[in-house]
């Protein structure tokens, strides 16, 4: 057995996902154990505010404080992941830590992406070698630094005979198109849950719309939907990636223009935001003719109304979750970073250049020995 741990806190800042995997030399992967580490409410609101440039005091001081706290939280997630098992830290080859993204600006004059959660602290606290800082290396080689999940989708979800689409519905959505014997196509399509999460939190003080129930009670506001869809991001060709610094409530208000959101039924806005996700994801899937099957992963895979609407728009293709391929939709992203750590230690490149636009396939990540 060669054991690796994967850690990620996604753009929704909903929880730290932690997985323990056995990764064989031929790259077969088996999920042995998983844990979802809640993010303390205070830290969660500080991270969300920080990401939106609402600093409390000196921004650099606050960044350092958050980097340290997220490092401690990730180490705690490892402790909780291992404690119900018989495994000791010394049994684990390495941790692959994505960290928490606080900014992703691939189109800035000097493009950068910033994930926090100090890997030195994770390695020191857990006693396990930690591989981290995956995205910046891809950017250094001219890539978008995202999305990364398509490399995992290609390795574990592709087929020799079927054309498949894998849709990761996190805060942001990314779609991977897998055709037999072809390099994968993959890109961020735009918002998945982030706008719906923000809208329901404003109106119903809930962190998300359980099963899309609230959205399902509303009606699509066609004019608003068209205004949102007019954003140039949606028609931009890949490689492309985005984040919540772009798709947020300020963006919705700006796109709505003369439509006063406050004068609309709040559930109609929610329904329209869900329609935006459905439309942009299905448009991406349609870039590949003859997709045989669609597999959903990420938290949004549990949104039954959203999954049903996607199925309606793709009547000739079965829409299922990645569980149909043997991997629970909740753990795909964390498993991606466990697998990346195994590649980094072997100094193997990760095949992302067809996705992110990097000039070559590179070894990603930096190693922090315990
Ligand atoms: N039962 C459910 N019904 C509706 N939405 C759900 C349900 N369960 C989870 N979600 C949505 O999934 C989101 C969390 O998904 P996930 O953890 O994949 O996102 P993330 O951590 O932001 O990932 P990423 O970095 O890929 O954006 C929640 O914020 C919520 O919107
Ligand atoms: Mg998450």
From TrEMBL:
<comment type="pathway">
    <text>Amino-sugar metabolism; 1,6-anhydro-N-acetylmuramate degradation.</text>
</comment>
<dbReference type="InterPro" id="IPR005338">
    <property type="entry name" value="Anhydro_N_Ac-Mur_kinase"/>
</dbReference>
<dbReference type="Pfam" id="PF03702">
    <property type="entry name" value="AnmK"/>
</dbReference>
<keyword id="KW-0067">ATP-binding</keyword>
<keyword id="KW-0808">Transferase</keyword>
<keyword id="KW-0119">Carbohydrate metabolism</keyword>
<feature type="binding site">
    <location>
        <begin position="10"/>
        <end position="17"/>
    </location>
    <ligand>
        <name>ATP</name>
    </ligand>
</feature>
<comment type="pathway">
    <text>Cell wall biogenesis; peptidoglycan recycling.</text>
</comment>
<dbReference type="InterPro" id="IPR043129">
    <property type="entry name" value="ATPase_NBD"/>
</dbReference>
<keyword id="KW-0547">Nucleotide-binding</keyword>
<protein>
    <recommendedName>
        <fullName>Anhydro-N-acetylmuramic acid kinase</fullName>
        <ecNumber>2.7.1.170</ecNumber>
    </recommendedName>
</protein>
<dbReference type="GO" id="GO:0016301">
    <property type="term" value="F:kinase activity"/>
</dbReference>
<comment type="function">
    <text>Catalyzes the specific phosphorylation of 1,6-anhydro-N-acetylmuramic acid (anhMurNAc) with the simultaneous cleavage of the 1,6-anhydro ring, generating MurNAc-6-P. Is required for the utilization of anhMurNAc either imported from the medium or derived from its own cell wall murein, and thus plays a role in cell wall recycling.</text>
</comment>
<comment type="similarity">
    <text>Belongs to the anhydro-N-acetylmuramic acid kinase family.</text>
</comment>
<keyword id="KW-0418">Kinase</keyword>
